[in-house]
Design a protein that fits this description.
By secondary structure, this protein is α/β, with parallel strands linked by helices. It has a single domain, classed as TIM Barrel (Alpha-Beta Barrel), CATH 3.20.20. 54% of the residues lie in helices and 17% in strands. The structure holds erythose-4-phosphate. Erythose-4-phosphate (E4P) binds next to helix 7.
Length: 216
């Protein structure tokens, strides 16, 4: 399973990259605003800076919601770097744009996916990635992990190559359960990824080894 980090914070991206487990980055307008990025030049320069840290795909979201606007913006984003994946919302014109980008060899990430039907449409349009938001579903007392399982079943039934990019991850258990279900990728803030390192028996065991090493 691949690990993407869901942030535009360059320090956090560097930390995940240094750990050696980072396969890509996802962003969205809220995430970009959080780090104080503004203006087209500033936004594009920040995407470029992210691409220079990580080796894998970097999702950059379009702000347009009409077909022509999404196409224009998506092409501009794709020109920033070959690592850029154009992130497109799950709307009528978004699906049309994903179909177009797919025909031109431009990578896409279909975002804001909350149902198996939406994921099926994204795959049929040729999306590179589909992003089901599991944490936001959990917030509405709906099992987000069940959506991952349903999408996995549908994609496997027909051999769709669209990658399931489990998004809106809130905990290390989300990551583990996504891995068990067969999500291709998780995109997570840094903290749940680092939480995977933790176990009290590891800490106790290491303390004992270090103590005993003094007898050597
Ligand atoms: C996905 O690509 C989104 O950027 C993200 O995972 C949303 O997560 P949130 O629900 O924590 O905002």
């Amino acid at each position: 399973m691949k690990f993407f980090i869901d942030t535009a914070d360059l320090e956090q991206i560097k930390k995940a990259q240094d750990l050696g487990v980072l396969d890509g980055v996802t962003t969205n307008p809220s995430i970009m605003a959080k780090v104080g990025i503004s203006g087209k030049n500033g936004i594009y320069a920040h995407y470029k800076a992210i691409c220079e840290i990580v080796n894998g795909d970097v999702s950059a979201e379009v702000l347009s919601t009409d077909y022509e606007g999404i196409i224009k913006e998506g092409k501009e984003l794709a020109e920033i770097d070959k690592q850029i994946t154009v992130k497109v919302p799950m709307i009528y014109d978004g699906i049309r744009a994903i179909k177009y980008f797919s025909s031109k060899g431009i990578k896409t990430n279909c975002t804001l996916v909350f149902s198996p039907g939406q994921a099926l449409l994204a795959a049929k349009a040729g999306a590179t990635y589909v992003s089901p938001f599991i944490g936001r579903l959990d917030d509405t007392s709906t099992d987000g992990l069940n959506l991952i399982a349903e999408i996995r079943e549908i994609y496997d039934n027909y051999g769709y190559t669209t990658k399931i990019l489990a998004a809106s991850i809130r905990s290390s258990m989300h990551i583990i359960n996504c891995a068990k279900i067969g999500a291709d990728i998780i995109t997570s803030p840094l903290a749940p990824i680092l939480d995977l390192l933790k176990h009290p028996l590891t800490d106790i065991g290491l303390a004992k080894f270090l103590e005993d090493s003094k007898k050597l």
